[in-house]
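Quick one, C-alpha cells below:
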C-alpha cells in the first residue's frame, strides 16, 4: 500500500460509530486525523422537528474539506452539504436551503448540518460525514463518522372499537384498542365503577405489533366476561410509550345480570281447600337487571305489579275436583337466557271418590298351593282417600298412592282355600259413600308321583344308531310339564291323566355313560322331580399308531419298546401283535423287543386292536407296519482260508461281508491298504506267487457308518501257504 496504513473501526449499534481511513507514508499518534458525529447513535429526534448533527473533525493545517451524506437521499450516496477550505477559513457549498441549514467553524473542527423537519423516513437511517486532509493528491487522508437516527413518534390518539357495550354475565366480549407511536406503547385495560374504583383487567388481553415508517402500531384485544358489579361502570384503555401517555375515550357498560334466587310462590288460603272454594297464587322474585318476567301456566284472574326491585304476579280461580294434584308452574325469564327457573305448587282439593273399588290378585289366575296370595283392593279418586277393610283373615297392609286408596291382604293358601270368597269394603268421610267388591280363590294341585323313564329297545346301543326314550308322569292339575336334557326329536303323547314325552336321537361314542334326564315341572314350585337313564353305547377304538422307544436305528443286543397307541373304545379293546406274519401272544398295548439280533433286521411289526363293537361291525383296525432297523457289526467271510498256492501260480482271495448299515470291504497288509474299498466284497489278486509269500498275513476289514452308533468295524486275517515246486535234475539239465 505504498507504505500507507488504513484503519477501520466499527462500534456496536447505539454506540458512537467511527470510520477512520488514513493514508500516509508516516502516521504519528500526535497528528492522527479523526471524525466524530454528534449526537451519537441512536440519535433521538422527535418527528416533524428540526435536528442538528455536528461532525467534529481533528483540527489540522492540512484540512481540505468535509462532506455530509443523508441515507434518505438516494441511499446516502451523493453529498447533501460540502464544507471546504479557502483563504478566509471555512466555506459552505451545495446545501439545499429548503431541507437543510449548515454552519461551520474550521478552527474548532465543527461542521453542522441541520435537518429542518425530520419525518418518519429518517427512522433507522444514517447521517454520515467524511473529512479530507491533504492537497487533493492520492496520498490524502480521509476520516469518516456516522450516526443512526431514532425518530420518536408521540401517542396522539388511542382508538377503541366501541363507544358502549351491552352484554350479560354469561358471554365473553372482545374489544380492540389501537395505538401508533415510537417506541411501541404498552396498553392497559381499566374498568372504573360508579364510585371511581379502578380495576385492571389486562390479564385477559393479547397484543399484536406492526411497524412502518410512520410508527409502531400496537393492537390490543381484550376478551372479557363482565360481572354484575360492572353494570353502569366505564371501560377504557390506557397507552404509555415512556414519552407520552394517553387514555382512550370511555366506553359505557350496560351489563345484564339475572336475579340471584329462583322465584317463590305463596298460596292464600294455605293448606288443603275444599272444592268450589277460591284460591290465590302469588309468584315473586327480587333482583336482576333488568327485572325478570314472570308467567303462569294456570289460568285465572291475573294481577301484576312491581315494588322496588321485586316483581309480583298473582292469579285467582275457583277450585273443582279436577284441580286436585294439579301443578301450577311459575316461570321466570330474563335477558340473560341462562336464567330460566321454574317453581311449582301442587293444589290439594278435598272431594269424594266417584268409582267402585276393584280387587287384583297377585299372582293372577290359579294360585299355587303352599304359596302366598296377595289380594290388592284399589279405589281411585277422592281426597282424602277412602278407607278400605277386608273380611278375610291374613296380613293386611296399606300402600296408598296420591290418587288411589290401596289395601292388600296376604294369606298362605292350600287346596282347602279353593273357592273361598274375600270381600273388600270402601268408606269415605265426606259423603255417605260405601261400596263392596268380592273375589273367589282358585287353587292348583301337583301330580302325585315322580316321572318314569324306559328305553324303547333295552340293552347296549351301537354308535351311529338311534335310541328312543319314553318319560311319563300321572296326575296333577294341570298335568306336569316334561322335558329332556338330551337333544333329539320330541314327541308329546300325553293323555287326559298322564303326561308322556318321547325323545329319539342318534348316539355316538360321546353318549356312552351319559345320563339322559327327564324333568317334570308344575306351577307348584316344590314339584321338580327328575328321573335319569344311563346310556350304554358301544363304539370302536381308533386305528392304532405305533411309537418306538427309543427311535430307530437300534443295535444288536438292545431291548426296545413299541407302543401301540389307540383311542380307547367301548367296551375295552384287546391287542394283537405280529412280527411279519407271526402272531405274538401279547395282549398289551406295549410290546418289548429284545435282546435284538441281526435276524430282526428288516422284519415288520404291526398291531391290531378290536372290541365288541368291531366284532359286531366286522371292522379290522390294524396299524401301519414298522420295518425294523437293527444295526450290527459287519460279519466277514474269507473263502478258502488259509490260502494254499503253488509257487509261480496266481491266486485270488475273496473277502465277503454283510451287515447293517451296508459295509465297505478292503484288504490290508501290514496295516497298509492294498485294495480299494468295495461294497460287501473285496477280491485280492496275487500274481506269479513267490515262495517268499509263504506265511504272509493278509487282513480283510469291513466298515459300516452308523448315524447313531458311529463307525462299526470288523476284520479277519488269513495267511498264504506257498508250496515250492520240485525241480528234478532232468529239469535242471
Amino acid at each position: 500500500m505504498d507504505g500507507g496504513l488504513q484503519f477501520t473501526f466499527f462500534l456496536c449499534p447505539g454506540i458512537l460509530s467511527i470510520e477512520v481511513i488514513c493514508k500516509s507514508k508516516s502516521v504519528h499518534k500526535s497528528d492522527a486525523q479523526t471524525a466524530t458525529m454528534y449526537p451519537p447513535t441512536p440519535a433521538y429526534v422527535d418527528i416533524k422537528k428540526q435536528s442538528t448533527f455536528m461532525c467534529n473533525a481533528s483540527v489540522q493545517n492540512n484540512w481540505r474539506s468535509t462532506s455530509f451524506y443523508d441515507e434518505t437521499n438516494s441511499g446516502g450516496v451523493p453529498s447533501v452539504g460540502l464544507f471546504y477550505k479557502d483563504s478566509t477559513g471555512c466555506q459552505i457549498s451545495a446545501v439545499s436551503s429548503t431541507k437543510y441549514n449548515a454552519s461551520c467553524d474550521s478552527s474548532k473542527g465543527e461542521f453542522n448540518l441541520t435537518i429542518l423537519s425530520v419525518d418518519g423516513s429518517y427512522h433507522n437511517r444514517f447521517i454520515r460525514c467524511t473529512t479530507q486532509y491533504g492537497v487533493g493528491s492520492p496520498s490524502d487522508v480521509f476520516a469518516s463518522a456516522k450516526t443512526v437516527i431514532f425518530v420518536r413518534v408521540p401517542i396522539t390518539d388511542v382508538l377503541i372499537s366501541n363507544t358502549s357495550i351491552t352484554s350479560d354475565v354469561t358471554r365473553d366480549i372482545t374489544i380492540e384498542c389501537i395505538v401508533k407511536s415510537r417506541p411501541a406503547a404498552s396498553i392497559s385495560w381499566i374498568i372504573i365503577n360508579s364510585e371511581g374504583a379502578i380495576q385492571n383487567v389486562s390479564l385477559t388481553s393479547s397484543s399484536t405489533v406492526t411497524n412502518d415508517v410512520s410508527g409502531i402500531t400496537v393492537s390490543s384485544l381484550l376478551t372479557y366476561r363482565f360481572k354484575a358489579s360492572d353494570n353502569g361502570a366505564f371501560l377504557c384503555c390506557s397507552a404509555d410509550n415512556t414519552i407520552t401517555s394517553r387514555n382512550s375515550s370511555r366506553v359505557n357498560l350496560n351489563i345484564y345480570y339475572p336475579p340471584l334466587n329462583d322465584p317463590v310462590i305463596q298460596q292464600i288460603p294455605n293448606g288443603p281447600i275444599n272444592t268450589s272454594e277460591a284460591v290465590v297464587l302469588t309468584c315473586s322474585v327480587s333482583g336482576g337487571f333488568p327485572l325478570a318476567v314472570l308467567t303462569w301456566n294456570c289460568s285465572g284472574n291475573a294481577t301484576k305489579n312491581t315494588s322496588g326491585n321485586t316483581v309480583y304476579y298473582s292469579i285467582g280461580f275457583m277450585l273443582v275436583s279436577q284441580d286436585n294434584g294439579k301443578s301450577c308452574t311459575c316461570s321466570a325469564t330474563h335477558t340473560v337466557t341462562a336464567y330460566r327457573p321454574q317453581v311449582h305448587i301442587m293444589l290439594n282439593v278435598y272431594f269424594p271418590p266417584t268409582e267402585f273399588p276393584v280387587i287384583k290378585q297377585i299372582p293372577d289366575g290359579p294360585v299355587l298351593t303352599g304359596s302366598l296370595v296377595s289380594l290388592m283392593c284399589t279405589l281411585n279418586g277422592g281426597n282424602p282417600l277412602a278407607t278400605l277393610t277386608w273380611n278375610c283373615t291374613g296380613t293386611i297392609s296399606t300402600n296408598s298412592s296420591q290418587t288411589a286408596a290401596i289395601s292388600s291382604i296376604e294369606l298362605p293358601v292350600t287346596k282347602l282355600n279353593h273357592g273361598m270368597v274375600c270381600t273388600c269394603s270402601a268408606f269415605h268421610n265426606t259423603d255417605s259413600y260405601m261400596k263392596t267388591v268380592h273375589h273367589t280363590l282358585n287353587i292348583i294341585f301337583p301330580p302325585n308321583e315322580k316321572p318314569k323313564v324306559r328305553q324303547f329297545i333295552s340293552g347296549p346301543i351301537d354308535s351311529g344308531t338311534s335310541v328312543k326314550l319314553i318319560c311319563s308322569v300321572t296326575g296333577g292339575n294341570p298335568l306336569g310339564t316334561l322335558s329332556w336334557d338330551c337333544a333329539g326329536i320330541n314327541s308329546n303323547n300325553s293323555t287326559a291323566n298322564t303326561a308322556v314325552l318321547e325323545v329319539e336321537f342318534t348316539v355316538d361314542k360321546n353318549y356312552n355313560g351319559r345320563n339322559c334326564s327327564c324333568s317334570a315341572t308344575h306351577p307348584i314350585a316344590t314339584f321338580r322331580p327328575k328321573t335319569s337313564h344311563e346310556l350304554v353305547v358301544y363304539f370302536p377304538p381308533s386305528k392304532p399308531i405305533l411309537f418306538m422307544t427309543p427311535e430307530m436305528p437300534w443295535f444288536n443286543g438292545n431291548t426296545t419298546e413299541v407302543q401301540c397307541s389307540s383311542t380307547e373304545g367301548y367296551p375295552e379293546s384287546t391287542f394283537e401283535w405280529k412280527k411279519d406274519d407271526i402272531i405274538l401272544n401279547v395282549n398289551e398295548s406295549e410290546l418289548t423287543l429284545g435282546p435284538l439280533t441281526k435276524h430282526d433286521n428288516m422284519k415288520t411289526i404291526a398291531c391290531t386292536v378290536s372290541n365288541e363293537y368291531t366284532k359286531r361291525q366286522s371292522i379290522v383296525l390294524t396299524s401301519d407296519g414298522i420295518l425294523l432297523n437293527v444295526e450290527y457289526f459287519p460279519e466277514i467271510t474269507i473263502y478258502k482260508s488259509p490260502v494254499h498256492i503253488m509257487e509261480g501260480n496266481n491266486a485270488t482271495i475273496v473277502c465277503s461281508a454283510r451287515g447293517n448299515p451296508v459295509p465297505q470291504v478292503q484288504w490290508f497288509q501290514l496295516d497298509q491298504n492294498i485294495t480299494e474299498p468295495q461294497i460287501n466284497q473285496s477280491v485280492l489278486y496275487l500274481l506269479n506267487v513267490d515262495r517268499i509269500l509263504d506265511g504272509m498275513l493278509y487282513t480283510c476289514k469291513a466298515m459300516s457308518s452308523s448315524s447313531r452308533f458311529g463307525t462299526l468295524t470288523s476284520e479277519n486275517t488269513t495267511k498264504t501257504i506257498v508250496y515250492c515246486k520240485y525241480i528234478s535234475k532232468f529239469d535242471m539239465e
